[in-house]
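Our preliminary data section would be incomplete without showing what the modeling component actually yields. Below, a chain of 180 amino acids is followed by its predicted structure, encoded as tokens that our downstream tools consume directly.
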Amino acid sequence: MRAIRFFEDWVVIASFMMIVLVTFINVLSRYIFKASLAFSEEITINLLVVLTMMGAVVGIRLGAHLGFTYLVENAKGQVRRALLIIGTVLMVVFLAVLLVWGAEMTIAQAIRGRATPSLSIPQWLFTLSIPLAGLLGILRSIQALRSSLHEDTSAEAVTRRLASEAAPVIEAQEFQGGRK
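Predicted structure:
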């Protein structure tokens, strides 16, 4: 799982870095040479798709997606469990659609030899992020469900968890200047 996490994080980081770099170079080119780079929009848009898809997977992993959590947080016992399972099943169905249709689109682009207009990069390399995000999203959704079924989501527990994440933890040794 550590390798998958590394992959997810670095695809997002590399995509964002390339978008920033290509856009910055294009801006400099326009102001210095009075000419825009023809490939910059092509690369930026395609990498934005990759960034969005893989960023969504990272968001699932981190529990950072917006949601209507009021009912789940205030539900108890079997009702809470049922709401969590229903929400995850709906998410998995959506991600399975992305996986299947994204895979079909990726395969069709590869078979047809479709390439980007300016740089002639095979289009399927960018489109591959859609089924890949579907697959990894399904994996992360199931992991999130497993952890959600075992954690306390009461208002008090959520408040304690948020407070502990926001406040720095100072060990007793540090507070006393390193003395024991």
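Helices lie at 2-32, 40-62, 70-74, 77-112, 124-127, 129-149, 155-166, 172-175. The radius of gyration is 22 Å. Preliminary results of this kind motivate Aim 1 of the renewal.
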